[in-house]
Amino acid sequence: MLMMCFIFVNARRGIIQYAKQNPHSKMTIDPSIRIGDILTLIFFGIGGLGFAWRMSSDLKLLARDMKLQSGKIEKLETIIVTQALQTQRMDHLSQRIEELRHWRGFINAEADGLYDRYGKIQNIP
User: Is residue 67 within a helix (H) or strand (E), and if so which, with residue range?
Assistant: First the structure.
């Protein structure tokens, strides 16, 4: 803490000494305007306007492309939903075929009784 106060006091003494040595140091502004300054300002303005015009046309193209992409994404969504439904139907059909392989849910003319999923329940006379 003492060290920080010492540094602060020394820095303040240095600033005060500098201010006493140079009492008339003022900032000056050059009021003269040259043709090169005017041309630089004009070219910067033209460049900014050209940049803004170019970006507006790029933004229009970007908006058009985004609309086209959204249409394609909607089509892709319908295709994926259709494929998911078709896959679900195929899974159910595969499960049904597997059940039929094990004689579950199949009507047989040669049935000799009443069956459930675990086996024969009752004989038919």
Answer: helix 35-101
